[in-house]
Amino acid sequence: MDTRDLIENLKADLTCSICLGYFTDPVIVKCGHNFCRVCLLRCREEADATFKCPECRGVIEDRDVVPNRKLENLSMTGKRLRPHLLQSITLALCDQHGEKEKLFCEEDQRLLCASCVLAPGHKDHTVLPLEMAAHKCEDKIKHTLNTLQRKKEEFTAALDRVRRIGNLCGNGIHSFKESVTLEYRKLREFLCEEEELYLQSLDQKHTDNVAKLEHNTAKLSQQIQNLEKMKIELEENLDKEPLEMLQDMKDTLARNEELLLQEPEVVSFAWNTSPITGLTKMLKRFQRDISFDPKSANPHLILSEDMRGVKYEDVPQDLPDNKERFDVALTVLGAQTFTSGKHYWEIKVADQFEMGVCKDSIRRKGKLSPLSEDVWILISFRLCNDCFLWNSRDGFFMSQPLEKVGIFLDYDKRHVAFYDAIDGSLICSFSDMAFEGPLRPYFSFCSGKGDNSSINFGN
Question: By the 8 A CB rule, do 336 and 407 touch?
Answer without folding.
Answer: no
